[in-house]
Structure formats: C-alpha cells, structure tokens
Specification:
Largest sheet: 5 strands, mixed, barrel
Number of domains: 2
Order of helices and strands: HHHHHHEEEHEHEHEEH
CATH class of the largest domain: Mainly Beta
Helix content: 40-55%
Number of helices: 10
Oligomer: single chain
CATH topology of the largest domain: OB fold (Dihydrolipoamide Acetyltransferase, E2P)
Number of strands: 7
Strand content: 15-25%
Shape: elongated
CATH superfamily of the largest domain: Nucleic acid-binding proteins
Length: 237
Amino acid sequence: MGGNEGGIQMKGRPLLSFTICWLCGSGLACALTGWTLIWGMVGALACLPLLLRFMDVRGWSILFLLAAFVGGTVHWEWNDIRNHSSLPETIHIAADEMDGMAAEIQGELMSDVRIDGDRADFKIQMSSLLPISDSPTDTETAAVSLFNGSETLMVQVRLVEEEEQQVAAGWKRGDAITLKGSFASPGEARNFGGFDYRSYLRTLHIHWLFKVKGASSVTAAPQKGLGNSAFFGGLTG
C-alpha cells in the first residue's frame, strides 16, 4: 500500500520528481571529480532504476527521471569546465607568475564592505588592469598589457590605522573603485577536512585575491548613474 502511495505521489508531481533527480545529479557532480565521479555515476545509475521501481515508478517515467539525473550531472560539469580565470591568458602571464604580481586595477564594487578588525573585505568586478614594475623598460611593456574585460576578485584591504575603518565604511556597493596592490592565489585547506577557501571562492566564480595595504591605496567614488551592483542591490534592498 505504501509503495502505491509513493508511486501516486511521484506520478502526480512529475516536475518535482524531475527537479529532485536533477539536483541529485548536480550534487553528485559537485561532490565528486574525475574517476570518483565516473564510478559514482555508475553506482547511482545501477541503483536508481531499482529505487524508482520500488517507488512504483515504471515505464517511460524511469527513463524521464534517469535523463534528469544525467542532465543535472552533465550541466554541472559543463559549467564547471568553464569556471576558470581568463586573466593569465588575457594578459599573457602564467598563473604562477601572477601570484604576487603588483598592479593597479579599476572596477566596480560588487558587495557590501565587511570590516573585521584591521581588514576590510569586498568583491569587485574588475574592468582594467595595469601591472606595476620598478623597471622602466618593463613599465612600457606593462602599459600595453592593459586588461579590458570583466573578472570578479575578492579584495582584502589591510587597514594600517584605526581611523581607516571609518574610511572603509564609506565605500559603497556600486562605487567606481581604483586599487593598488598585488594578486594572490587563494589558500587551500592545510589539514584534512579543513576549510578550503580556494574551493569556496571557486563556487562564487572567483579565482584571485587582490591584497591592498592601507586605505590610502584605495580610491572609491559613486558612479554617474546606477552601476549594475547598485541597481540590483537596490532591488533586493
């Protein structure tokens, strides 16, 4: 009797069933990678038809839900493959050489500023980049390597004086912002089971930190009109 009731619920809510299977496929792809994902898919596809038959889901409905599961997995993997930084290839610098590279960048402040002690954190959408070099010959080359595009960065500003907390509090979502600092690769988990900051930022499509020393290295001003983040921030209130 319980199996029939489960079957009636599944048959009566096809969209819900499809969504659940899609999310299960996406969750599997999120949790596993490489060969572990392949074996996970094999195991799931072997067990899922038995589970659906137990729930009295039969015929074309089984194929429909299996397709949802596979579709969720493939969709996640497709998006994940494209989730990478375009900066190294755009400015023709290897990723390991970018780590620690000094630069002046411009963009739009995309989040509220979070102040924690002597540090202010926020996200920006970068629109231009100019590498900074002490060598006069490198400066001319750097000027040609101006980056025009769009990449989201997590900015960390080290506040060197207590008064700079008030300055940082005045930076608002949607401001046009210019910063001088250096790029840094996000840290990975040092211990087993520890927090993996790099993986967390990757889920936000962020691949680089930009570290700034002092609020004096930050220039922020309201944009003329509404920027993207200010507009959507106003809608979400």
